[in-house]
User: Which sequence fits this backbone?
């Protein structure tokens, strides 16, 4: 972004000649920016919550598997049982049709 010196001088002169309007513009800009920051933070928190429910982490291979939906308690128990029997997590999740 390239701003000319003349443009900056015009903005400074306008702010000096119209202090109330300049103050109003600055307050409005700060309000808009803070609202945008708050919304993006809220959206990223929601995205992390959703993604944590729809992933399965396998500590032995250190891989996060993306799922189509949240696993039920019965499905989680089935995964634990089959994992103890030596099956691969990928094979278990693929057979349960929950992988994305």
Assistant:
């Amino acid at each position: 972004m390239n701003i000319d010196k003349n443009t900056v001088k015009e903005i400074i002169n306008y702010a000096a000649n119209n202090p109330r309007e300049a103050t109003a513009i600055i307050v409005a800009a700060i309000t808009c920016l803070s609202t945008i920051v708050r919304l993006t933070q809220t959206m990223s928190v929601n995205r992390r919550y959703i993604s944590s429910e729809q992933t399965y982490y396998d500590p032995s291979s250190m891989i996060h598997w993306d799922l189509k939906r949240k696993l039920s308690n019965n499905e989680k128990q089935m995964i634990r049982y089959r994992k103890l029997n030596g099956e691969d997590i990928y094979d278990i999740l693929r057979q349960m049709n929950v992988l994305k």
Remarks:
- The beta strands are 55-58, 63-66.
- The CA atoms of residues 79 and 92 lie 7 Å apart.
- Residues 19-53 form the longest helix (35 residues).
- The mean pLDDT is 84.
